[in-house]
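SUBJECT: A protein chain and its fold
Encoding: whole-number codes for local backbone shapes
Chain under study, with its fold:
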Amino acid sequence: MRVFLTVVMAFACFMAFAQSEKEIIILNLMSKEPIAEASLVDKDQKIVAVSESNGKIVGDFSGVYHVFAMGYDIQKYQTSETTIDTVFLKVKSYDFDEIVVTGQMRPTSVRESLYKVDVIGIDQMQSRGAVNLTDILANEMNARIVHDNILGSNLILQGIAGENVKILLDGVPQLSGAGGGFDLSQVNLHNAEKVEIVHGPQSVQYGTSALAGTVNIISKTLEEEKWQGGLSAYYESVGQYNADIALGRQWKKWNINLGGGRNEFTGYASPMVTEARRMNWNPKVQYLGNAKIFRDYNKLRVGFIQHFFHESNTSKGAPDPSTGGRTANDHLTTSLRMTSGVFANGEIGKNWYLNILNSYQIYSRNTASYLVNLNDESSKKRSEAEDEFALVNARGSVTRSQLLEDRLNVLLGYDYSMQSASGERIDKERDDLRNLGVFTSVNAKIGENVETQLGLRYEYNNTYDADIIKIGGVHLPLIPSLNIKWNMGSKDHFFRFSMAKGFRVPSMRELYYDFQDANHDITGNRDLGAEVSDNFILSGSYVLVQEESRKASINPFIYYNRIHDKIESVYKPSDAPVGRTYENIPYFQTQGVNINVSWEENNQWSATVGSGLLGRTGTDASDQFFWSPELSLQSWYRLKLLQTKFSLYYKYNGALAQFELDEEKGLVDRTLGDYHFLDVSATRAFFHESLIVTLGCKNVMNVTDVEQTGEGSKGLTARTGSNSELPIAWGRTAFLKLTYNINQ
């Protein structure tokens, strides 16, 4: 009898233990295939189990967990009373469902936007080893980057350079400072959540300088009621050493986010540099800081933002032969940018959305010349000059949506800015530039498949008349735009069409700034007129395959820009290698076409192939077109065995010409030769994505200097000059990027 009772009790204990075990199956939401190496993480952020090749986890589990798997969104999981649970993970997506805010009436998805918007997320920044905007945009279609060792890296978008591209940081317009456009190397991505690139004009929303496109860097926001953050380190074999930190936390309705970093580049001399000590990629050290504090009032968010940037750029001179090579003249350029802003955005009632952003920004630039004793490296300051630019910007809008049974949305807004400048290199008889815009947009749905948006902006400038529209012989200061989106029977097949006027007044730099050093002699022109432009864009997306495990689409893009009285840098006689001033060109025109084909297979691999052709002409081209082709490939492959993602970014940039008329009105050009960029990398996540490691190679084709040919004197920007070669990149390099996320 005792033996029988012992057996029964043992059997009962075994059954109770067996029933306490739970089987969890981890599946792909789309394909329903099992996911291996998925981590089950408890509330203390500890990995308690990892799924097998069949997607199964077996054990004694109870309570709330999170499931992590590389390439998938994190999924919260609550155990049930059954013995078998199934958890579905969604593939990470940064395409049509990504929410964008730049230039929109209210936050909307890429698919539903009336504009063509490209989004570059954290995954792409990590796999590219991106440090600043230059790293992100260099491989994008329609984009070219031109470099100068003092004035920075300038973006050419849709064949248009300089001031016609709007750069925003958390929606705040950025001052261009001293270059022919905004220096992209001064926009660091250490705290970026994503980069939104809006193609085409945003002149109704943002006014001046928003013709070719708008680039908005969106900062991270950590919104958990615990301390979160991250540490990041970056090394590149050319001599780049970066480190940054971010921290954030939410207390009930309050939130604070802080960040900072340091970037150091030791400089690079390409093969075209033959003199000792000289470099065409100057050594520089950057310090970065950011803060964001806000409070939520129901669905309205009110807060404060602060961005800090400091850079020291050292230009080393060649040994002076007059002193037997014992001395040299060096230049130290120090840049400081401080941006402060207050904002309020969100819903203020049913179907009402408010967006207000007021900011103040200063940009100072100090250039000092030193006589350096090369025997003991001691130095003596010989001269110094400092300039300061300031920008006050106040903008706001309110949107009333879902009128007429959700068929009509109306936006009203204002935009005020004031630019000022001071310093030894600024014309003493300068005037501040003040601009006031009042704008409206009306969005209407026509039937089930057509959506239109009409925009209109009243523009006042204290120096220039914005007489853009002519009605009945009367010129009116109005800037119009029209957007149309047509869904071809499905939200996956659509076309977008946009047309808009643009208006741009000369910048403080183009009007009043004089810059001279050993290599540059650039002067402003007080007699410049304002630019008036027309832009037309046709883009679309057609889904070729839409299945649970695969997706393919084709995306055409056609654009046309015509600018009247375009402000161009033109040659002027000078002893410096780069002698330029500014003039109005009667008209300038660009047009082009791109086609991208994308394919993604079961979260296993993805490829996007693009091809394009850019044409440019104008008064200085005698109406002759100069053409430039482009090719691109962006691809990744996920090797499940190693839990590693391999990425490839390729871009072919065809020859690009600058054209002008010589003194005898004959057509001459200066053409930059073609070149290829290729970057490759491998990314692996460890400790349920707490540590992310990327190892890669940039510029595999080892591009450094690209030859310029032709008799023209005009370079791609004011700083290109007449050198026979132009520095494009600093050659082939290896890089390592480490990112450690804390409580994320």
